[in-house]
Amino acid sequence: QVQLVESGGGLVQAGGSLRLSCAASGSISSINIMGWFRQAPGKQRELVATITSSGTTNVADSVKGRFTISRDNAKNTVYLQMNSLKPADTALYYCNLRNGWLNPSTYWGQGTQVTVSS
Hints:
single chain; mainly beta; seven-stranded mixed sheet; four-stranded antiparallel sheet; globular
């Protein structure tokens, strides 16, 4: 069984920074993709950023240059450094793990709230 535990959300003023963390536990494949998605009220869940186990990243245009995704493979942990936050970044942020290669299993964290005040 795989579990994802997120931390680091909160309330911040526009222009501020937050760092999200997500630790995966259980049977984790050495080949996987970890990432962050977000969902604002009344909107669909959208990709924020992903990173493969070899370090290749994919970052949404809306956050490019402000958010940085990284990971520590030894700890099975992914991070999202969020700088220059905007009210439009307010959402529930979900950690995601695609575990394995040929037929990956997908797991989600419980979500952590990020609120940016203007």
